[in-house]
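Incident log entry.

Two folding requests arrived from the same account within the same minute. Monitoring flagged them as a possible duplicate submission, but the sequences differ. Recording both here for audit purposes.

Request one:
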Amino acid sequence: MRDQIFTKENDLVNFTFDKSVVNVFDDMVRRSVPGYQSMIEMIGLMVKTYGQNNTNYYDLGASTGAVSLALSINNPHQHNRIIAVDNSIEMVKKCRNNLDGKISNFDVICSDIKDISCENSSIVVLNLTLQFIPVKQRQALINKIYQGLNPGGVLIVSEKIHFDDEKKQTEVTKLHLDFKRANGYSELEIAAKRQSIENVLITDNKKTHFDRLNSAGFSQSLCHFQCLNFASFLAIK
């Protein structure tokens, strides 16, 4: 379904993953996030390299299940369980419907991801999820994920980022807006969504991401993908 949530002027409230957003989420994210499809494809590639037999794969903030599906269809390993977690009941319903009949080795859980232990895991994914967690709670979440990962396991984090250099930030923002326009969003829709989401989605810069991963104890971390102001990080335990 095409995203037309912000086509009319109205009294905006903070962005929430309610039924109206869930119904158009796949269209919204493809038209709003530069490189989104490549992010998902890279996750499929990662599971081939870093997945381990007899372990769990966690998709935290699973939304409609695109990451979980990529993990499953690209997985060459044996006896794995994909655990998709989201705190929106509407997203959980959509995710379960999207995965049912396509893969068999999965659970979809409605829960706050901060309450999930990620035990016996070799792959954990936070795909456009951490940016919605309160900033002061992010380090604790990464620490908890690290503790649940098996040696050699990985955390994959994809996020919208910001730049400390004001000129660079301005130019990248212009390009991102042009990306949205090229995908059919009007000036009204762009402005309305920005107003709705600005107090909900709080970005970090690259250094903050690396510092957080290093502080958790990961032996190696790198930015393996970036398109404009969206980046994906791979951290290895």
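Request two (distinct sequence, not a duplicate):
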Amino acid sequence: MSSTTARSQSQNPAFNLADSLTSYLKRLPPAARVSLSTRSLVDATLSFAYRADVRVPSASVIKLPIMLELMERVKAGMFNLDAMHTLTEAEKVGGDGVLQTYADQSRVSYRELLRLMLIKSDNTATNIIIHLLGRDAINQRLRKSGLERSQLNRVMMDTLAAKQGRENYVTAQEMNALLEKVYRHQVATPEGCEAMLTILKQNEDVLTIPRLLPKSVVIAHKTGTLAYVRGDAGIVYAEKPFLLAVFVEGVPTPEAERIIGEVVLICYTYFN
């Protein structure tokens, strides 16, 4: 869908977000399984959900709950982000990230580990933080936050666990709920929430939510990629800011990215 087409729809009195998204989703190939949730941060009645409560493999979007637990520890005075971690060769894993290129015994602050986990989706940084916090604590934080279906079941790049069916899961609806709590300063501290948003706004992956939007649009988001799922969950600071989480399964990654971008453009045109 071109930006001109989307704009003309928004100028049509008959234009409706639900109708437009439903029509778009019906045109997708049967193999494409989309899970979608979007809602205005100005008017909660303006929303759309499609398979929003279906558990999907999270890929790196699971790093949002990990971020939340870490910042709650900071709030409780149990942890200092400026504490230093000594990186070892044994901690390094492949996939996304830059820490795997650092020298053995490099000293890195936990603030930097958090930043790398979210901006570069660094898997080594993520695993260090998971081991620090504990899987059970991260999952308990999800439950305390009212997020019942999302679950961290393994560390990053654990291919054996994945083959055994131990996958990490989220839902589009719950990732929106988590991001809204951060946006409204309902978790951690107000300063902590603003710090999280600042980092999420620096996400370097531009192939999904930012794909078709003007470069001037600010987006706080976290993406995820596996061979079998492409996802993104974030806050789009349109004229009327809105939440959006989209996961696409069943099609090659470039096709999934195109679908996410087109879904986002429909939403952005409506909310802007």
